[in-house]
Amino acid sequence: MIPLLGVCLLLGGCQERTDVADAYDVYATSDTYQLTESSTEKSISLLGQDLCVGGTENTAAADGIDTDYAQSAAVFSVQDEEITYAQNIYQRMYPASTTKILTAYLALKYGNLDDVLTVSSDAVNTLMSGSSICGLKPGDQLTLDQALYGLMLCSGNDAANVIAEYISGSTDKFAELMNKEAQALGATQSHFVNPHGLPDD
Fold it and tell me: Who has the most CB within 10 Å: 26, 57, 124, 181?
């Protein structure tokens, strides 16, 4: 019996090939897509030239926005190049579980999805009570691919720690890598202390 995926692949091969104009090429540089200009000594971002720049004052609430829900928020009208709502848009905030996006990025960049990871006791026992987990136990074995599912679908802080230990040997070393990569990506005001985003205080 041919697995469903095999059938899908075979059927996909029967179609006429269509080329997409300006298809994304993973091997192209930012310069190719005119996101940066390499002709100058310092790369200049062309992506944000038409975006809104907000002041430091909060603006009136926009219709339909629950201002009691978030500590900071913004609504931009890119077409009009105006900010229709702003609340503490320059206030530094804990990144919380959005930290896991960088953890996943680094796992994909430096890891192998088929590698088998073993869950350490530190990965699960150092998390605070009530932490979002995917239910890993010390000694469990799973692939990096499975750990990424636990990280991103369950928001598993335990999976974040397992991935960090796999990539860098410890969560502290992984946080150093996170900060280095964030700086390289241009997130110069970011600072990470762990792979899951729980506050460190």
Answer: 124
User: What is the pLDDT, as a whole number, of residue 12?
Assistant: 44
The verdict on 61 and 124 lying in the same domain is no
Q: Any catalytic annotation for residue 100?
A: yes
Contact by Cβ (8 Å): 141, 119:
yes
Q: What is the mean pLDDT of residues 172-177?
A: 98
Same domain, 77 and 60: yes
For residue 16, is it within any domain? no
Q: Whole-angstrom distance between the N-terminal and C-terminal Cα of the chain?
A: 55
3-state class (DSSP) for residue 76: strand
Active site includes 72?
Answer: no
What integer is the mean pLDDT of 51-55? 57
Residue 170 a catalytic site member: no
Instruction: Spot the catalytic one: 38, 42, 43, 100.
Output: 100
The boundaries of the domain holding residue 54 are 31-91
pLDDT, position 55: 62
Q: Does a structural domain hold residue 144?
A: yes
C-alpha 14: how far from chain center:
36
Check 39, 77, 121, 155 and give the catalytic one: 155
Band (pLDDT 50/70/90 cuts) for residue 42 is very low
